[in-house]
């Protein structure tokens, strides 16, 4: 009975995560609709809702579900605390989902955001305690990701003092935001999904290659914060620090490749076509992310990278939808937490991936047109809206598939 209850609970958790993802994508679609057909809607409020629900409702909670599933010992994960904590966190996400579009950053949205951070601290403490004795490579990555998550929130706690003392336009305020985002995406999220990925075959990992990869990636994560800081503080030394970080990151993933290469055949043999497709998306996106970071070592591109908004959005989506979501979907499919036999699911994933690829092409093309020609790409708004419809359609089909299977 306990096993059945646990399976039912996990399905409910999955449905919530995909509901959050679908909601975030619908808000994103509305933002692109507003460009075509102006409405009396505060675009900035929608942007806050979109980013918070996507990051904290989808990426955070989906990682939560998979950490509990693959790292927490079965007797501990059956305790009510993980279930209560999940639904408390989901409540804070729903609160942000409602309040951000209505009021932006204001009293109630700040209350729900703060509630999410406090609950995330509780989760980090539980995870740290429950996997304390485990010394595997995946557990090392997970513990590091948890530390990065807590560390990233220091940036959030600086926002209040920054606004009250210096205002939202101050350098301190902007750096605090970038600090949070950098260590969320490149620390907490990236290390967590890599931990989940390696968990699937960690008994075959080359420990020496892993140790080098792990050490270099931690150092690179700290060094590359210099890049967003350099947008606001003009100092050549920051560029050199970032360059060292990007090069170390490249070397780290060379060792990551060496670590995976001996087992690549066995890994592929255990995956169905859909799982191979989403893992392929994750690894290709990771390669492109590193490539983009290498490109912005060129001074002229570094200068324009944050000034052209399309480049910024394209890179964020490359990381969040390509790398993070790709690995999460891959782990779900590999472990049959999503039914690969469902035609609804397979169609949904294909629609999502195609829509994602097309939006990335439009974003980077538009950015290139603005940079090189100082003009807009013809049909950009219509094209990216259509591609966004494919993403929403794909997530709708995936969510419907999970609900259908649960019934």
Please render the helix and strand layout as text:
Blueprint: H1 2-36, H2 43-70, H3 74-77, H4 80-103, H5 107-130, H6 137-157, H7 159-165, H8 171-199, H9 207-223, H10 226-230, H11 236-260, H12 264-269, H13 273-295, H14 299-305, H15 309-334, H16 343-373, H17 380-406
Helix pairs in contact: 1-2, 1-4, 1-17, 2-4, 2-8, 2-15, 4-5, 5-6, 6-8, 8-15, 9-11, 13-15, 15-16, 16-17
What does this structure look like?
By secondary structure, this protein is mostly helical. About 85% of the residues lie in helices and about 0% in strands. The chain is built from 17 helices and no strands. It has helices at about 1-35, 45-70, 75, 80-105, 105-130, 135-155, 160-165, 170-200, 205-225, 225-230, 235-260, 265-270, 275-295, 300-305, 310-335, 345-375, 380-405. Helix 2 (about 45-70) runs antiparallel to helix 4 and helix 15 (about 310-335) packs antiparallel against helix 16 (about 345-375). The model has no long low-confidence stretch (mean pLDDT about 90).
Q: Beta-strand percentage?
A: under 5%
Oligomeric form of this entry? single chain
Basic shape: globular
Which stretches are poorly predicted, pLDDT < 50 over at least 5 residues? none
Number of strands: 0
Helix-residue proportion: over 70%
């Amino acid at each position: 009975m306990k096993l059945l209850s646990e399976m039912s609970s996990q399905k409910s958790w999955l449905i919530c995560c995909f509901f959050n993802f679908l909601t975030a994508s619908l808000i994103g679609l509305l933002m692109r609709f507003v460009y075509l057909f102006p409405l009396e809607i505060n675009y900035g409020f929608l942007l806050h809702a979109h980013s918070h629900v996507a990051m904290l409702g989808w990426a955070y909670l989906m990682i939560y579900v998979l950490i509990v599933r693959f790292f927490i010992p079965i007797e501990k994960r059956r305790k009510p605390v993980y279930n209560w904590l999940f639904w408390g966190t989901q409540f804070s996400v729903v609160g942000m989902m409602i309040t951000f579009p209505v009021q932006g950053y204001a009293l109630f949205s700040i209350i729900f955001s703060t509630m999410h951070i406090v609950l995330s601290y509780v989760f980090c403490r539980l995870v740290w305690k429950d996997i304390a004795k485990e010394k595997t490579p995946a557990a090392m990555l997970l513990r590091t990701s948890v530390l990065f998550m807590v560390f990233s929130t220091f940036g959030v706690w600086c926002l209040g003092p920054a606004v009250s003392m210096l205002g939202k336009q101050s350098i301190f305020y902007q750096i605090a935001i970038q600090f949070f985002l950098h260590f969320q995406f490149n620390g907490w999220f990236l290390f967590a999904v890599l931990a989940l990925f390696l968990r699937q075959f960690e008994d075959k990992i080359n420990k020496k290659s892993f140790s080098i990869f792990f050490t270099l990636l931690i150092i690179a994560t700290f060094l590359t914060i210099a890049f967003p800081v350099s947008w606001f503080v003009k100092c050549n030394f920051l560029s050199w620090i970032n360059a060292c970080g990007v090069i170390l990151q490249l070397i780290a993933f060379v060792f990551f490749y060496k670590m995976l290469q001996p087992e690549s055949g066995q890994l592929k043999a255990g995956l169905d076509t859909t799982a191979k497709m989403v893992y392929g998306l994750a690894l290709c996106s990771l390669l492109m992310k590193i490539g983009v970071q290498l490109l912005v070592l060129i001074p002229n591109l570094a200068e324009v990278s944050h000034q052209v908004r399309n480049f910024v959005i394209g890179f964020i989506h490359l990381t969040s939808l390509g790398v993070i979501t790709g690995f999460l979907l891959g782990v779900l499919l590999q472990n049959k937490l999503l039914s690969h036999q469902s035609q609804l699911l397979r169609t949904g994933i294909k629609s999502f991936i195609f829509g994602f690829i097309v939006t990335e092409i439009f974003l980077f093309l538009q950015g290139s047109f603005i940079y090189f020609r100082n003009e807009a790409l013809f049909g950009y708004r219509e094209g990216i809206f259509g591609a966004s419809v494919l993403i929403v359609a794909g997530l709708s089909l995936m969510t419907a598939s999970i609900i259908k299977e649960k019934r």
